[in-house]
User: What shape does this take?
Amino acid sequence: MSVDDVTTAATPVLELDDVRVWTAEGAQLLRGVTWTVNPGEHWAVLGANGAGKSTLLSLAAARRHPSSGTVRILGRQMGRTMVFRLWEMIGVVDPNIRLPDELTASAAVLTGLTGSLRPQWERIGPDDETRAMEMLDRLGCIDLADRVMATCSQGERQRVRIARALMTRPRLLLLDEPATGLDLPAREALLAAVTDLRSTDPDLAIVVVAHHLEDLPSGTSHALLMAKGLAVRQGDAAEVLRSEPISECFGIPVEVTHRDGRWSAHALPGWNRSSAPDPVAVPTGDEPADEWEM
Ligand SMILES: Nc1ncnc2c1ncn2[C@@H]1O[C@H](COP(=O)(O)OP(=O)(O)OP(=O)(O)O)[C@@H](O)[C@H]1O
Ligand SMILES: [Mg+2]
Assistant: This one.
């Protein structure tokens, strides 16, 4: 039975119910997260370093099992389904993956079909090549098609990575800090391309993990704030991305502004670093050890 056999247009893309993740040593990475992502929603996940954002994404990507609680992806419960069937429905943009320097951008996008680092040409047909060009065009970088990755800027590479993640027509796109390290024009081009996916792929659900509100695309519809492994606030972006919830989440008084669909935040005058709370520490629990890495 394929993933499509158990999903309808209304099936949530992602459903986490009281999800906990702990390590063999007992460190608690997630401490009871309940979260639902529906088709077409664009989520921002924010939180301090170590809050558990990337751990959450690895569950959403079906790359890790929860220690307790349930994770359903497109109606399929993790632990009761063949995960590789889910992988092609989930596009993951991981900045740690370095696409080989000698690949052209179009070849790099084609690797998304097989999730490999090099194109498996025997499995690639003319339709796939057409789709790769369409995805480069969708990300505003069709002119890069014949350029080798070695000569692409950081921002160009990041857009190629997103095009690559879209090759399999995923229902869920996961981006972990996509704007980190990009200069202003590159960041703006990247965020505009992500925002444009709302019109070209209206049912695609997107989750963007970010450290800064300035790094959120203007199409962001929902937000989840994390602290110390907990989902401390979630809901409509307009409700959650405000001064009070953001100040509470990061533990410093900030003023959030929302203009032309974009957000920004700055610390209130008078705040200084010496009055900041201690960095987030993940508490050690007494839960039993569990296998969580697949
Ligand atoms: N295998 C592991 N063993 C022990 N602790 C871990 C392990 N993996 C992650 N952690 C810890 O769990 C916490 C959450 O990690 P995670 O990578 O999810 O945070 P994050 O919110 O993505 O942080 P950042 O903003 O720095 O990327 C961190 O304190 C991290 O050090
Ligand atoms: Mg992280």
About this structure: The radius of gyration is 19 Å. Residues 98-169 form one domain. The chain has eight helices and twelve strands. Residues 23, 27, 29, 47, 49-55, 282 surround adenosine-5'-triphosphate (ligand 1) (CB under 6 Å).
